[in-house]
Amino acid sequence: MTLTREVETHPGAASSMPVIRRSRRSWTGWGFMAPFMIVFLFVLLAPVLYSVYLSVYDTKLIGGTQFVGMDNYIRVMNDPQFWDGVVRILKFFAIQVPIMIFLALGAALAIDSARLRASGFFRIIIFMPYAVPAVVATLMWGFIFGDRFGLVANLNDFLNASIPSPLTSSLILLAIANIQVWTFTGYNMLIFYSTLRTIPEELYEAADLDGANQWWVIRSIKLPALRGSMVIALVFSVIGSFQLFNEPNVLKGLAPNSISSFFTPNMYAYNLSFSGQQYNYSATVALVMGVLTMIVAYSVQHFGTRKDER
Amino acid sequence: MFAFTAKKGRIVGAAAITALLAGTVAACGDSQDTAQTTSPADAEAALSEESSLLVWGWDPAIQPVADAFEAKYPNIDVEVVNVGTGSDHYTKVQNAITASSGAPDLAQMEYYAIPQFALSGGLADLTALGAGELESSYTPAAWNNVVVNDAIYGLPWGTGPMALFYNKAVFDEHGVEVPGTWDEYVAAAKTLHEADPDLYITNDAGDAGFATSMMWQAGGQPFQIDGTNVSVNLQDEGSMKWANTWNELVQNDLVAPISSWSDEWYQGLSNGSIASLTIGAWMAGNLESGVPDGAGDWRVAPMPVWNEGDTTTAENGGGAFSVLEQSDNKVVAQEFLEFMTASSEGQKITLDTVDGIPSTVAELSDEQWLNREWEYFGGQQVNQVLADAANNVVEGWQYLPFQVFANSVFADSVGQSYANKSDINAGLSQWQDAIVSYGEQQGFEVSAQ
Amino acid sequence: MAALSRYRKDTSVLSSVGVPKIKRSPLLFALMLFIAGYILLPLTWLVVNSTKTQKSLFSSFGLWFSGEFALFDNISKVLTYDDGVFVRWLANTALYVVVGAGGATLLAALGGYALAKFNFPGRRGVFILVLASLSIPGTALAVPTFLLFSQIGLTNTPWAVILPSLINPFGLYLIWIYASESVPTSLLEAARLDGAREFRIFFTIAFRLLTPGLITVLLFSIVATWNNYFLPLIMLSDPQWYPLTVGLNQWNAQSSTVGGEPIYNLVITGSLLAIIPIIAIFLYLQRYWQSGLVAGSVKQ
Predict the structure, then answer these.
(1) The domain containing residue C280 runs over which residues?
(2) Which of B20, B259, B418 has the CB atom closest to A253's CB atom?
(3) Which C residues in the span 64-103 are in contact with A, Cβ-Cβ below 8 Å?
(4) Residue C30 placed within a domain
(5) Helices H, strands E: what count in chain B?
(6) Which chains reach chain C with 3 or more Cβ–Cβ distances below 8 angstroms?
(7) The architecture CATH gives domain B37-159+318-372
(8) Number of domains present in the structure of chain A
C-alpha cells in the first residue's frame, strides 16, 4: 500500500500537464522557450492567422475578391458534405484508436517486462512500419487488399471463398484503420515504452520484497505511471484521426468510388483548395475543423486528468 | 432539371471576356509584349540575344527537344524541370500563378486543363506572338483544344485520338471477332466473361476523362462555353447514348472495376485478364514499356462506332505547351514552342523518344512514320490506324472552364453509379448539379438543361 | 523522501530487465510473434518484390520470389537512374534530417524544459496556443503557408522544408513530461546555489537526465523529417532539392505518364533502400534507452 502512495506523488502519473509548485514567476524561462516560439509563430501561427483572414473573403474565377463576413462559416454549418466527413471521422476514431492504443500498450508492457524473449527484436519490428513512407505503405497494402490479382484474390482462389475486397465502400474505413494501426502502433508503443523506462527501480524492488506478482506490478505501478503518456497519446490520436488524409488520399487511386472527395474534412478542405481553387472556403473548413478538434482534444485531456487535478 | 435563362448574359458575354483578358494583361504589366504582333525580325533579334527559358513538364521527350533547340540557338539556355506528373504539376503551376511569382516560361498543359488556367489569367494569349499563322499546321481537332474564347493559349504537342487496343491472343483463344460497333463490343464482352469469369473485355472503375471522351465520340456536347456563359447538359443525346450502353456493361459485371494506372491494372494487362482498352493513341508506347509481357499479343483496331459505317472517334488525353503570363521572355518562348510542336525537327525528336502521335498534319502523313511496323504489335502498321483516328475526331467538343474541378468530383456522383451498379444517367445528373453549383459560385452564368 | 529516493538509480544497472527471478513466458512470445507476423507481412512483399525485374513484377505471385534474382541489378539501377538523382535525393534528405530533426529536438528540449522547470509569464498560453494551432489540419494550411513563404522568397529553397520541420509540438510535450519527471528541481536549485548559469545547468545536468526522452523525440523527428512528403511537394519545384519521398513518388507517377516508362521495380527497391537508414539509426539510438537512465551525473 505504501507503494501506491509513492506512485501518486510521481508527477507524470499525477497529471499530463504538470504544475509547478513553489517557484516564483520570472522571465528566465523565456530564454529557453523563445527559440521554439519564434519559429512556431512564423511557420504555424502566421499561416493560421492568414487562414482566418482568407475565411472572411470570397474569390471567384469571374468577379474577383470581395469581403463576405461570416458567409463562409454559415455555409460550413449547413454543408452536408462537411458533416458527412465529420461523422465518418468520429466513427473512424472510435474503431481505430482503442485497438491501436490497446496493442501499443500491450506491446510496450510485454517488451518492458522481463518475461519476453528477444524483446529488442520485437521492439524494432513493431516500430518499423512507422518508418515506411505512406506512399509505399499504401502500395503494399493495396497489393494485399486486391481481390482481383492481390492477396485477397489468391486467398479466395485457394480457399474457394469469396472474401470481399476491403476496398469496397462498406469496408474501406476498416481498411484505412488497419493501415493506421499498422503504422502507428509502434510509434505509441515507443512512447509508452520510454515512459516505462523512467519508472524508478525502487518501486519494483519494493514490490518484489512484498512478493507482488507481475499483474499487480502492471496494475499498481506501470499503468498509473503510463497515465500521462496515455493522455498525450490519446490527445494526439484525436488530432491524428481528425486530420486523416494521407491514407485515404493515396487509396483513392486504387478505389476511387469508395472514397469521395469529401471523405474526411481534411480531404474536403484539400480538394476545395487544390482542385477547386476555393481557397477561402477551404480555409474556413479547416478552421471549423480545427475548433472541433480542439474541443474534443481538450475534453479528452480534461477527462483524462480530471481525477488527479482535483 | 431547372432551366436557367442566360439571354442577358449571352449579349454581354463577349464584352465581358474581352475586358477580363485585357484586365489580366494589364495587371501583369507586360502589355507592350502582347500589344502588337511580333515580326520575324523581332524574333530573330530575340533569339540571338542571350536569354534563358524555364520549362515545366513531365514528358521524357521535352529534354531532347530542348537540347536540339539549344544546339540551334546557342545563346538560349533552356532548363527543363519535372515538377510532378498531372495533378502535382497543376498544383505547382496554380500555386505559382496565385503567388504571382515563381512560374516557368512554358508549361505542359493537357487539353482539359487549358480553359481553367486560361480563364484564371495564368496563360498568355499567343495570338500577338504570331501563333495564329500556325493553325493550318495542326489537325483541326488538335487546334480546337488550345483555343478558348478566340484566344490561343498554347500549341498542340501531342494528341490522343482514340483507338481499340486489344489482346489478339485472348480474343482468338475465345473465338471473339474484333468489335466494329459498340453493340458488337457488348456482345464480345459477354462472350469473354462467360468463357472465363476472371476475364474482362476492359477495366473501368469510373473515369471522368474516359467518360467525357466517350460522350464526345457519341456526338454529345454536354459543355458549351461562350465567354463567361456555361451551359451544361449531361443528358443530351450523345451523353445518354454512352450512358445507356455502359449501364449494360457495368450492371452485368462485364467490365473489371479496376482503376487505370494501378498496379492491378498493369497486372491485368500483363496476364490477359483485361483484354482490351479503348484509349488515346499514346497507349501504343505505354503498352510497349509498361506491359512487356504482352509483346506480340496486342493489336490496334479503330475505335468501335455507334452506327455501322461510321468512322468517328474522339480525343482522350493528349496535351499542349503553353506560355505563362508571368514569363518575361515570351517571344523566345513562342519560338521554342513553335520549334517543339510545329517544326518537323521537333516532332521527329518527340516521336523518337515517346512513340506518340504527332499533332501536325505533315508528320501524320509522313510515309516513313505511317509504314513503321511495330514489333510489339506483331509487325502491324499501327500508325496507320492511329493516323486515321486522328483525322476522324468529332468536331465541336468543349471542356468546362473548370474541368479540373469537375473531374475531381466525378467519383462522388457517377462513380457511385459504378459502385452500386445503378443507373449511370442518375449519376450524370448528380454530376451536373455539382458542376452547376460550382460554376455559379465561381461567378459564371450557368444554364442547365 | 520518496521523491529523493526515486533518483537513486545508479545503484541498479537496468530497471525491470535486471530482475532475474522472472521466467520467460512462451505464451507472451507466441502472441508477440503473431503481432510481428502481421507487421512483417506487407514488408515481406517489399523485400520479395525488390528482387524482381519490372517484367516479372506483374506476372508473378507477390509473396514469393520469381524470375531472375534482380536485387543487385535493381539497386545499381536505382543509384544510377536519371544521372544518379536518387543519390542527390538521399543527400537532400540527410540534410533535412540533420538540420530539421536535430533542430526540432533541440528546440523541443529547450522549450519543454522551460515549461517544466520555469514559471514564466504566458506559460499556460504557450500550451494552449501550440495545441490550438496543431488542431488545424496541416494540409489545409499548405496554401497559406506557401503564399507566405513565396512572399519572402523561401519557396524552392531547402529552408522551406527545414523551417517547418523545426516545430515538433509533440516533442515539446514529451520533453515537458520527461523533464518534470526525471529532472529533480532540487538538483537545479543546488546548481544555482553553486552559481552555475541557467544554460550551463541545462546542458551539463538536465540534458543528460533527459537523454531517453530526447532520444525518443529525436527518433520521431528523424522519421517525420525522413518521411516528410506533403510540404516539400508543395514548396519545392526543383527536383534538385527533392527529398526521397517526393522523388520516389515522382518515379511512381511515371507509370501514368504518356510515354513514361513504368519503373515500379525501382520504386520498390528505392523504398526499401530508403527504410534501411532509418532502421540503422533506430538500432544505433536504442542503446540510449538502456543507458540513458543511469546518467552518472546524478549525485546524491
Answers:
(1) 75-294
(2) B259
(3) none
(4) no
(5) 21, 15
(6) A, B
(7) 3-Layer(aba) Sandwich (3.40)
(8) 1
SS3 call for A259: coil
Residue B126: φ, ψ to 5°: -90, 0
Q: Would you kindly state where each structural domain of chain B is located, as residue ranges? A: 37-159+318-372
Q: Which B residues in the span 81-110 are in contact with A, Cβ-Cβ below 8 Å?
A: 87, 91, 94, 98
Structural domain containing residue A222: 2-10+71-309
Q: How far is CA A307 from the centre of its chain?
A: 24
pLDDT tier at C298 (50, 70, 90 boundaries)? Answer: very low
- Torsion of Cα atoms, A75 then A78 then A84 then A88, to 10°: 90
Q: Hey, which of B429-433, C9-13, C116-120 has the most confident mean pLDDT?
A: B429-433
Instruction: Kindly determine whether residue A118 and residue C29, on different chains, have CB atoms separated by under 8 Å.
Output: yes
The pLDDT tens digits of the residues spanning C178-217 come to 888 788 888 888 998 888 888 889 988 888 888 888 988 9
> Between helices A134-145 and C264-285, what is the axis angle to 10°?
120
Domain of A148: which CATH number? 1.10.3720.10
pLDDT in tens, chain A (310 residues): 333 333 333 333 334 444 444 456 788 889 999 999 999 999 988 999 999 999 999 988 888 889 999 999 999 999 999 999 999 999 999 999 999 999 999 999 999 887 888 888 898 899 888 888 776 787 778 777 876 656 777 777 777 777 777 888 888 999 999 999 999 999 899 889 888 877 878 888 888 888 888 888 888 889 988 888 888 889 888 888 888 888 888 788 778 888 999 999 989 998 888 888 888 999 999 999 989 998 888 888 888 775 554 3
Count up the domains in chain C and report the number: 1
| Residue C13 located in a structural domain | no
Contact C31 A135 (CB under 8 A): no
Best of A88, A149, A273 to mutate (most B CBs within 10 Å, chain B):
A149
* Helix, coil or strand: residue B264: helix
Other chains touching B, judged by 3 or more CB pairs under 8 Å: A, C
In DSSP terms, which residues pair with B274 in a beta bridge? B200
Domain of C201, CATH number, reads 1.10.3720.10
> Minimal Cα distance from B160: which residue of C?
C258
Task: Say whether residue B442 is in contact with chain A using an 8 A CB cutoff.
Answer: yes
Residues of B in contact with C256 (CB under 8 A): 85-86, 260-261
C positions 281-300 inside 8 Å of A (CB): 282-283, 286, 289, 293
Taking the C-alpha atoms of residue A6 and residue A15, their distance in angstroms, rounded to an integer, is 14
Confidence (pTM): 0.83
Give the DSSP H/E element, type plus range, for residue C179: helix C169-182
Q: Which residue of B255, B405, B431 is the best one to mutate when testing the A interface, meaning the one whose CB has the most A CBs within 10 A?
A: B405
CA distance B309 to B188: 19
Give the DSSP letter of residue B157: E
